[in-house]
Amino acid sequence: MSDRILLIDSDIFVLLSAAALLDPLIACLGFERSSVRRLAALPHQLQRGRSFQRYDQSIRDEVLMNCNEIPAIEDRPVSSEHWEALIAVDQIDEGEALLFAKLAE
Length: 105
What we know:
With about 100 residues, the chain is mainly alpha-helical.
């Protein structure tokens, strides 16, 4: 099994799920669903967050179904150097900082 993982930001995860393009994109990039990770906060954001309330409930339900099938990123970056540098930038939120720091590893 490859140690490569595909990290997907919440906004893109929602758009791809809503357009039924999540699985085709995963395959196109040469990954299996088992190698994909999403941000842990996404299910909560879909249910309670204001930014995703603009989507119809049926779309949020589809995204939630995909969330249940694709694991969240569980571990923090090994090196705190990248994390600390990224989290200090005002325009980068915690989820994006996590994705960038994991990518840098």
